[in-house]
Amino acid sequence: MAAIVSISDVYKDYHLDKVVVPALRGITLDVHHGEFISIAGPSGSGKTTLLNLIGCVDTATRGVVSVAGQDTGKLPESKLTDLRLNTIGFIFQSFNLVAVLDVFQNVEFPLLLQGKLSAAERRKRVMGLLEQVGLANHARHRPSELSGGQRQRVAVARALVTQPQIVLADEPTANLDSTTGQNIIDLMRELNQKQGTTFIFSTHDPKVMKHAQAVVMIADGRITGRTTPEAAALHAAGGAH
Amino acid sequence: MGQLFLIAFRNLVQHRRRTLLLGGAITGVTLLLVLVLGLTHGVSETMMRSATTVSTGHLNVGGFYKVTSGMAAPVVTDYERVREIVKHQPGVAFVVDRGRGWARVVSDTGSMQLGINGIDIRQEKGLREVLSITSGNLDDMAKKNGLLIFEQQAEKLGVKVGDSVTLSAPTPRGVNNTMDAVIVAIARDVGLLSNFSVFLNNDGLRGLYQLNPHTTGALQVYLNDIKQASQMKPKLRQALEQAGYTVMADDPRPFFMKFDTVNREAWTGQRLDVTTWEDETSFFSWTVLIVNLLSGLLIAVLIGIISVGVMNALWIAIRERTREVGTLRAIGMQKGRVLMMFLIEGFLLGLMSTVLGAVLSVVVAAVVNALNQPVPSAVQLFVMSNTIRFLVTPGAVTFAVLFLTGCTTFVSLFPSFIAARMKPITAMHHIG
Fold first, then answer.
1. What number is the ipTM of this complex?
2. Where are the domains of chain B?
3. For labeling, which of A51, B133, B333, B387 is most exposed (least CB within 10 Å)?
């Protein structure tokens, strides 16, 4: 099966004044359609940088990042934006909802950017997703009127509304209590299984990574292994102690 | 696009205090701009209305009669014949004949050099509407020695209705003549126009200048549409020339500024001159120019201030919403839409504030006009009236709204452009 994300010998350096800080050092990774993968590692290991490269919001210093068959290094900014809009969904650690829009409007927003569906079709799809995440009754609430868990559910719905091939979630449970975090991961897993959407999420929480099909371990900008969730959780828990 | 408007609108509402402050400033500038435009328009309109009844017609057929080459008198001889030619021209509503002169008015306590307008009160349809008589009776101008003066003149001369004054003027024959006139009416000042003009019965004026009854100063021609004055001018000149009159070369200045030129020329006898009301009042145009310049300067400074305010507000908004910009860019919003989103915010702020300012200006103008309060004489000089009158037109309101909304949108362009250029990764990781 062809990889939906293919990363080959990728380096990413950040320049802080005259100091070059290497964030990724020769990463090679393939993610296949329908996988539910966790990228795990301690803070500063390069998880977010890797997700940013896959999500086309940043470009590699060296190496090839291919998403849905397209070499992102060769695409102009407008094409990268289109790729993000049509192929990738984002779930952020801090939810990142538009404060002045209500739940329905936040979820609908990517569809408006696409401009492919009629108002009735948009409404049907948005309400369907809100049903799935259990927020149909909160459609007209503003983000400030929701709990952290509810906001992240809105973010999940927004990420899925364009029916993307890949959903990237950067520490999606970091700002949630453990029960709510658990619910969000369960929801993501359920949507992955029902719709076949590829999920790649970063975490350093052993309780979260145990839900993944596979865990890519990363440290100091290098992949240290691809392992089972149980082994990764054990490793992370050990590391923690 | 609707969603971008919604985001912009709700952000303005969300940051209520900032929006109110900035919107209030834009509203204030709009209010001022519309009022200034209304005042300028009002002054122009008042000037036109006053001038075209007090001192000029829409068109004037005047001229000079010279006994010798160096002695020009501002008269039209055998004016009835000229009147017949003029009044049958298409577009002419009616014709009034006015005497023209320049005399010293002497009272017991003072004297003034003043322009004398000779009138036949029965012909003067517009004068009653323009002049506000504070004492006396305009109908008494039918008396041969009846004189109408203005309040300020009455004050300077120390006279009231019923008092006598002496008029002293040089006749076309080169000798000085005097007459006694009785003040029959005193009118409220009408700005600069009333500073140097008085009205005397036309027969009285002919007596003062020793002119025959078939002579007048000028024929003031009133058209059905004053806007046609410039087009009518060459037609009238042509008609008079075809009737055998010699018409002076076109010179767009008031008649009293032409004496030197006419006296230097060698001809004698009668020559006619055709002028528009704009020619005769061209010396007033500086007042409108000064009002326009001062108001333009004031508005420019205020626009500068609100431009800085709008730019600053947008900078703050963009800084506060950097993470939001990053998120929107990450989920697939193109740069152009980010630019549009912030531009719409500037546009909406401008539009709502200017519309409010325009509505307020209409209300303020209506209230001030209704109060009809007299203004100091120094102000009267500029506004050509003894009261402030705002003439707020739909055109001025539309202009103010569009112009100021355009300004706020334009100054929003630069911060919006900077917001659109932000990389999603930079914006998303922005702290603040």
1. 0.86
2. 2-49+285-428, 57-280
3. B133
